[in-house]
Amino acid sequence: MIIENSGLNGVQSELHHLDDAAEKVGFVRWQWEYYRATYDLKLTDRASGSDYFLRINTRAIEGKLENPHAVLNIEAVYIGRSTFPHGMEYESPVPKHIMDTATQRLDQLKKQLL
């Protein structure tokens, strides 16, 4: 599910600042290549045992990700349920308490970046 109202789409930040801010909120930069990075936050629904990942896609608009001063643009924010062994499912409903936590973390990240 794409989260349209995160307030983060289009936000730009230097890589080192985004890495620091994301880490403070609990995100980890997992997938990355020279011009693109994905930040993930794992949220577990204890009632069902399902894991959800809040994911932020970014793209370098200045420099490459090897450089801490590269400027990244946040392109999309979305959440999905993890499927075994390595997939993500974005169509199923997300429990309210998971969405509430996701929204809180996105707000915390936005405060760090703006």
TrEMBL record:
Pfam families: YugN (PF08868). InterPro entries: Uncharacterised_YugN-like, YugN-like_sf. It comes from the Bacteria. SUPFAM superfamilies: YugN-like. This is YugN-like family protein. It comes from Paenibacillus agaridevorans.
